[in-house]
Amino acid sequence: MMDKKVLMRVEHVSKTYQMGEVVVHALQDASFELYEGEFVVILGPSGSGKSTLLNILGGMDSPSKGNVFIQGQEITNYNDRQLTVYRRDKVGFVFQFYNLIANLTARENVELATEICKDALDIDHIMEEVGLGDRKDHFPSQMSGGEQQRVAIARAVAKNPLILLCDEPTGALDFQTGIMTLSLLHKINKQFHKTVVIITHNTPIGEMADRVIKMRSGRIVEIKENIHPLPPERIEW
Ligand SMILES: Nc1ncnc2c1ncn2[C@@H]1O[C@H](COP(=O)(O)OP(=O)(O)OP(=O)(O)O)[C@@H](O)[C@H]1O
């Protein structure tokens, strides 16, 4: 990384769930920073706390302990209204199963997301950038899984967020389409200088990241920097 400007800081964050008599430690004492323009993969097996961490980063959940900052502002102090604005304007979400609205076209899906946020980018430009310039008027059911995921990525990017949070974005796709999706996220990361965070249990995806945060049983067990991240096209699983 040339310029390591801190975008987010996570300090001693824990999350516990009370399940009757049992306390589940979903996340224990996580601390790390995310830099501007960085590509980060959070890697870990099922149940290791990845979604819990991503939900906290995205302001969808709050920690039981610890503090989270974005650009020096503490989001763990935000009230509900401030959290709504944070999720709406600052964070782009990409999910495993796309979560598109079935009765809206690709373009309308993107448009809807941008209508509620402040600094949205030009929709048609973004649709071109994700390779859907000629598919804008298709409905989700008329598109392949990979195309639907590209709409979801366009929707997240068009908001012009500070950070893109992606939850198993290749989880529902075959290998080839998965690689194309990762290439697109890589391009968005470089071209738009957006911080991208992917959570996955798929180890090889870590090879394309600037840094890999490894989790096990609710804890960060390793943070590894890749001096030479692999181009997504060279990843295999
Ligand atoms: N709302 C909840 N109530 C109770 N326990 C929860 C809740 N959410 C998560 N957990 C527990 O916290 C732990 C971490 O879950 P989390 O979903 O963060 O893991 P994950 O790494 O994202 O797993 P997966 O890859 O399967 O989604 C698990 O033991 C899970 O059962």
Task: Please describe what this structure looks like.
The structure is a single chain. This protein is an alpha/beta fold and 237 residues long. The chain has a domain at 38-63 and 90-228: Rossmann fold (3-Layer(aba) Sandwich), CATH 3.40.50. It is 28% helix and 29% strand. The chain contains 6 helices and 10 strands. The chain has helices at 50-57, 80-89, 106-115, 123-129, 145-158, 175-191; strands at residues 6-19, 22-35, 39-43, 65-70, 73-74, 91-94, 163-167, 195-200, 211-216, 219-225. The strands form 2 sheets. A 6-stranded mixed beta sheet has the order 6-7-8-3-9-10, sandwiched between helices. Strand 1 (6-19) and strand 2 (22-35) form a beta hairpin. The longest helix is centred in the C-terminal third of the chain and has 17 residues, at 175-191. The chain is globular. The two termini are 26 Å apart. The structure holds adenosine-5'-triphosphate.
Examine the coordinates and then state which fold CATH places here, giving the name of the CATH topology of the domain at 38-63 and 90-228. Answer: Rossmann fold
Element string (H = helix, E = strand): EEEHEEHEHHHEHEEE
Count of helical regions: 6
Number of strands: 10
Q: Tell me the name of the CATH homologous superfamily of the domain at 38-63 and 90-228.
A: P-loop containing nucleotide triphosphate hydrolases
Ligands present: adenosine-5'-triphosphate
Distance between the termini: 26 Å
Structural class per helix/strand content? alpha/beta
Strand order of the largest sheet: 6-7-8-3-9-10
Helicity level, as a percent range?
A: 25-40%
- Please describe the biggest sheet, giving its number of strands, its sense, and whether it closes into a barrel: 6 strands, mixed
Radius of gyration: 17 Å
Question: In the CATH hierarchy, what is the architecture of the domain at 38-63 and 90-228 at level 2?
Answer: 3-Layer(aba) Sandwich
> What best-fitting shape do the alpha-carbon axes yield?
globular
Assess the beta-strand content as a share of residues.
Answer: 25-35%
Provide the low-confidence segments as ranges: none
Q: Quickly name the level 1 CATH class of the domain at 38-63 and 90-228.
A: Alpha Beta
Calculate the mean pLDDT score and round it.
95
